[in-house]
Amino acid sequence: MTSGNPSGVPVPSRLTRIAAAAMLVAAGHAAQAQSAGELKVDGFLKQELSFNTMNWQDTPDYNDRGKLSMARTTARVNLDWKPTSDVSVVTKLRLVGEPRTAFLKHLEKMGAYNYGEADGRGNLMDLYNKNDISDVIREMYVDFPVGERARLRLGKQQIVWGETDFFAANDLVHGFDYTWRSFLEPANEELRKANIMAKLNIDVPELDGGIEMFVRPGWDRKSDIGTEFDIYGSRWSTQSTAGIDFRNIDPYNFRNREGDARDVTGGIRWTGLAHEINYSLSYLKTYWPSPMLNASSSLKLFGLPDVPSGVRTLGRGDTVGAAGELIYPTVDIFGATASGYSDWADAVFSAEVAYIKDAPYQFLSGGKGGPLSQAVAPGFDGIKKKDVLAWMLRMDKNIAATQQWLGTEKPMFFSLQLFDKWLQDYDKGERLLNAVGSGQRTNEHSFLLTGIFDLSYDNGRIKPNLVVGADLSYGGGFIVPSVTFELAKNWRWKVEYDKFWNDDIRNASKCGYPNAASCDSQSLFGYFNKRDQLYTSLTYLF
To answer: What separation in angstroms does the CA of 74 have from each of 69, 275, 463, 518?
Structure first.
């Protein structure tokens, strides 16, 4: 413990170094601002705290309520150097440090993040304090013209496609790191896994549009592909799996033939303007964002002889884990977007559609699943591929009536979004699952509805916000009220509450063998049962 620390949270010297580094960069920026704009430096220093507001059901004999689950310090520095007027060299750096809170210590003792440890105890902070050079360099690329109409960008970068901030259909160029803060982080740039790529943009003014194409040669780290969920039993693990590191029976395999991190991926997109409608058409070959459970064709447990499981393993003869492996299969996605202003509604309407060829799904064989699913959880019966049509409709509108009703200084911004995943050639008898580990069967349509309400007071210095969402197909939802204060020119303080509700949960005490595969119908928001959070952040911008 650090003396003089009333919170009782140990503050390691690493956090002090992060803060000092950010302040030095900010001081250097003041001097560099006089150098004719050749180097632009900006960024932020942020302290984030998150508290459990409910007692988790899957941490027996421990009171989680009120425990500090996150105390993250982040220093972000963006450098944009222009050696000439039309060439940019961009570097984006991020340092992150956290102390090991009492709550994280308890999850660690339960077994969180202990894969490969002989004594069963891992260092959970390795999950959050990833500050080696590959983690620190978020992006680093050079951007330069190629002739009069084209620009080429080479290096580690982010590419954003699509029209939505939530459940993306076309924004699948990269995976996301949801161990950072699940889907609640408004700055997708902080969650997105940047990749080493070559991107070419070509202007075609004759057709009021342009072409964007990119190639990812497969030079990234293995962990830089696919969307990463908390399978480690830590603070964003799904309900009923706290303290369980699933890599002990289902480790990642980034070398499976169905999805090899060394594979070349890429895409091409046309964006244009037609009769005041912005539109795009795209093709993308990328990794399926969710890790899929590739079940083992034979059980390899406790040093006993291998026992056939009756499951067909994809991409190889058998898996690298005792019961399976996690893989990211590659998929082909054909996408389109459109957006435009409507006079009659005084609003901007947007649409997005993606046809996904051979999207992978877990399934449940027979009535109660195979022996692995019955013993562990649903999803250990293999993978089926289905074509999926994912789409989104959105309306963005400013509502002036709030100036009279609520005393806002300007009209409230309101956004409504409807999402759907439509399975083609749907057959209920296939028993497709929404996710491994939970028993909810996938419907032909999976509808989600979200709404955003943004208000402003005191010349923008006080900004209340409300985000709500409802699962129209499987039940449950979330509501996230927050308010951001501009304390001074460079200081922002945010307070937020993350509330989830659900129609069904997975009760681990009732889901043992031989009923593990069919004891629940938990879906998306059941994963967050009892995971409500009080969150606050203080940010210094420079």
So the answer is: 16, 44, 23, 42
